[in-house]
Design a protein that fits this description.
By secondary structure, the protein is of the alpha/beta class. The protein has helices spanning 7-27, 52-67, 85-94, 126-134, 138-142, 186-195, 207-213, 223-228, 254-259, 262-297, 307-316, 318-328, 330-341; strands at residues 39-44, 72-77, 99-103, 150-165, 179-182, 198-201, 218-221, 237-253, 301-304.
Length: 342
């Protein structure tokens, strides 16, 4: 089916993000007019409904419409039905949609602060990432893209990332020469290059076919995404490396958010906080269940890093940290390290 580009996509292609950000200022004069019906929140995302993000998005819709009937309605568009992640960032800034939950990796074109989340072997588990996100750096992180007309209102986990490939990727040497699909992220590109691999930036929805046809050899993802998108069917080996964190910024269009009546905004934030806590707990369970299902399928062989192998990996990745530490900022990096060591 052929689709027509949205105004956001057309504007982006002609004028780029600089023009888009300037236009956001004009939107601040636009209020939310609920006189003709409920306030509408359009919420597109690219993952399946059963993934951590999909579950949280659906719960947000349910709670908002239960507690604020006739006041706010939420339309959730999963699995990239409305747009992909990159287009959704521009659509949010432009005001075409009101809420998104996109990978923190995809926002590094708007702020370098989120590059901290992509540093390999920084967080040992989701608890470490959560301590960082809820600690002293929280408000700085949530406000990091305000200049683009986007306000962070929460952090949602997907899970820790694992390697998948034609061989067990238990050492950097095993990755040499492999074509790795990655998200749009300078840190992830540097990570793969440091491993000796060949990074290929690619949209999430294209990954299965690319693995199936050999356009790429390998990828990194959470157990939840690997299972729900069936990557394990076309990856003979998966390595439980827990080498990186995959999480999302839950964000709203700032002019829209400020146009809401204060009581509505407060109620929405209460629900957001509740859903974020619930969803992040679900992420742990969903990933554990996905791993169990992959093992039961027998389609992929699972390798696991031992402590010695993990140290080799971490030492190999130190140059990546050195490259991005200045752009991230020493204070943020130290806060992340402190959270990981608790």
């Amino acid at each position: 089916m052929t689709t027509t580009k949205s105004a956001t996509v057309q504007y982006r292609s002609q004028f780029g993000l600089i023009g888009l950000v300037l236009l956001v200022g004009l939107l601040s004069a636009c209020g939310s007019d609920s006189s003709n019906g409920p306030i509408l929140i359009k919420f597109p995302h690219v993952t399946a409904p059963g993934t951590p993000k999909g579950l949280a998005a659906d719960r947000f819709k349910m709670l908002v419409e239960e507690r604020m009937p006739g006041i706010v309605t939420v339309e959730v568009y999963p699995s990239g039905q409305l747009m992909n992640d990159d287009d959704s960032i521009d659509a949010l800034a432009f005001g075409e949609v009101q809420m998104i939950a996109v990978s923190l990796s995809k926002l590094d074109r708007l702020t370098k602060k989120y590059q901290v989340f992509d540093l390999p072997f920084l967080f040992v588990d989701l608890a470490a990432a959560e301590r960082f996100q809820s600690g002293p750096a929280r408000e700085e992180l949530l406000g990091a893209v305000l200049k683009s007309g986007i306000r962070g209102v929460g952090f949602w986990h997907n899970g820790m990332k694992q390697f998948g490939g034609p061989v067990p990727i238990t050492s950097p040497e095993a990755a040499e020469g492999l074509k790795f699909r990655i998200m749009e992220s300078d840190v992830l590109q540097a990570q793969i290059l440091q491993m000796g691999g060949n990074p290929q930036k690619m949209a999430f929805g294209e990954v299965y076919q690319a693995l199936q046809t050999g356009a790429v050899d390998a990828q990194e993802n959470t157990w939840a995404n690997t299972y729900s998108s069936k990557f394990y069917e076309v990856q003979p080996y998966l390595t439980e490396s827990n080498h990186g964190y995959l999480g999302y910024l839950l964000a709203v269009n700032e002019p829209f958010w400020q146009s809401l009546p204060e009581d509505v905004r407060q109620q929405l934030q209460v629900i957001i906080d509740e859903v974020s806590a619930w969803g992040n707990d679900q992420a742990k369970e969903v990933n554990a269940g996905a791993l169990a299902n992959i093992i039961e399928s027998g389609r992929s062989e699972i390798a696991r890093l031992n402590d010695g192998e993990r140290k080799v990996w971490a030492d190999t990745m130190l140059p990546v940290w050195d490259t991005f530490s200045d752009s991230i900022g020493e204070d943020l990096l130290n806060a992340a390290l402190a959270a990981g060591q608790q």
